[in-house]
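Now for today's protein.

===
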Amino acid sequence: MNRIDDRFAQARREGRTLLIPYITGGDPAPAQTAATMHALAGAGADLIEIGMPFSDPMADGPVIQAACERALVHGTSVRDVLAMVREFREGDAETPVVLMGYLNPIEQLGYERFAAEARAAGVDGVLCVDLPPEESHDLVSALTAEGLDPIWLIAPTTRPERVSAICDVARGYVYYVSLKGVTGAGSLDVADVAHHVEAIRGRTELPVGVGFGIRDAATAARVGAVADAVVVGSALVGLIGEYAGDPDAGREAVAALVREMRGALDAPAPAPA
């Protein structure tokens, strides 16, 4: 078992829902990312997703697009993000780290080299947003050869047979996108999320994380009641952008939101009326 499997197994034993924050590597500046990762872990994050900044993040809304732009101003590359993970690993050997991004920068580096360098840096899994499973064999082979989990997105519109195909190649967990649209958009229908999560569970034994549209502690708690993990991105990235000129204050703000969400997820369910 790797760190991702260990963390989900521990949460299952404890009856906990994992909290997975997302931040963009290099935002607001490369020197700040490892410290922000430590702040997230200290506030109750169970697993951390790090975005590899890309110039055309088509699945992301304006908040994360702006984060990519801030990171790219500093020339942040995939290798720079790996260096941030290595720095984080100097003080945290336990918290799983998943890289999230787009295929082009990975192809530029080369699948085998990317996988080897990611593993050496302390990465546990990779989510490539724009790679369909039908075309994923080479990257998945490179990742699994290095013991890295390929993580996949499943959308509300994904056909049942395609859900099965995705689950066949996925490892670690699957990520259900709770909204039609980009990150940070819309509002959640938790009953609909629960329906889709149960359908996915009928096709895989992997844990199911839910993200997109989770903005506050109350929403995190509602989604956490039906999912194995809650993923929050735009709400945190927006705070980093708001405090871009004062990274210390930005870290305090994102840590405070993560603590609030962690508390909401851990609170006892209210008694039925």
Notes: Residues 92 and 167 are 30 Å apart (CA to CA).
